[in-house]
């Protein structure tokens, strides 16, 4: 049996595909074909879970996304690209040149229509592995992703995702969240936040400005999920990023 393996940076060989696909039957067909080549697959239901796995440093041959079951994948490709340099392979039943151009421009390596059988899709993926991965030698972006609870924050894309939903934040709200998540668990004083986020406007800002901005930030984070409280305040001290389960049911 021919085995398909790729050496990782640590020198170990990898033969696992990270599949983002809610359709178990399609995934099982793909898995059966890959097994013939000595390759296994790890299936997840959401882009969020896939990105989390990639941020943990798990090694994979490539990411395979089924657009038919993950239709909103496109907005999260840049965030996924922040998390990994491995190839991103997208399969779809609704192929158009316009969609292909957008997917590739945002960070996917291949955007292909499904073949008539699973074997054809596997052969297409093998062609992908023959290509030089254009992302492999990309210089790392400082602080590309911050992860906490259900939150994934991309500094380079300036976006925040909670369970595959993008949270619209103002510039100040985003910068506050970056500062809090970067110093997760540590109380930051009002003066520290004013100096870091407001910068030259520091002397003109006040604690009420911070209070209002964090109040709006909390409301937006809570509106997108009901699992965790993320910002803790302490009177006369300041604020910190925490991951505290809520009592909501």
Name a few traits of the molecule.
alpha/beta; single chain; 249 residues; 23% strand; four-stranded antiparallel sheet; 13 strands; Arc Repressor Mutant, subunit A; five-stranded parallel sheet; Rossmann fold
Give a structural overview.
- The structure is a single chain.
- The chain is α/β, with parallel strands linked by helices.
- The protein folds into 2 domains: 125 residues, Response regulator (Rossmann fold), CATH 3.40.50; 101 residues, Arc Repressor Mutant, subunit A.
- It is 36% helix and 23% strand.
- The strands form 4 sheets. It has a 5-stranded parallel sheet with strand order 4-3-5-6-7, sandwiched between helices.
- The longest helix has 17 residues.
- It is elongated and about 65 Å long.
- The N terminus is likely disordered.
Short description:
The protein is α/β, with parallel strands linked by helices and 249 residues long. The protein is 36% helix and 23% strand.
Helices and strands in order, then pairings?
Elements: E1 6-7, E2 13-14, E3 16-20, H1 24-35, E4 40-44, H2 47-55, E5 63-66, H3 77-83, E6 88-92, H4 97-106, E7 110-113, H5 118-130, E8 145-148, E9 151-154, E10 159-162, E11 165-167, H6 171-182, H7 190-198, H8 207-223, E12 228-234, E13 238-245
Parallel strand pairs: 3-4, 3-5, 5-6, 6-7
Antiparallel strand pairs: 1-2, 8-9, 9-10, 10-11, 12-13
Helix pairs in contact: 1-5, 6-7, 6-8
Strand order of the largest sheet: 4-3-5-6-7
**Overall strand count:** 13
Q: CATH superfamily membership of the largest domain, which one?
A: Response regulator
pLDDT < 50 runs, ≥5 residues: 1-11
> What Rg is obtained from the alpha carbons, in whole angstroms?
21 Å
Reading the helices and strands in chain order gives EEEHEHEHEHEHEEEEHHHEE
Shape: elongated
Total domain modules: 2
Category by helix and strand content? alpha/beta
Binned strand content: 15-25%
Oligomer category: single chain
What is the annotated CATH architecture of the largest domain? 3-Layer(aba) Sandwich
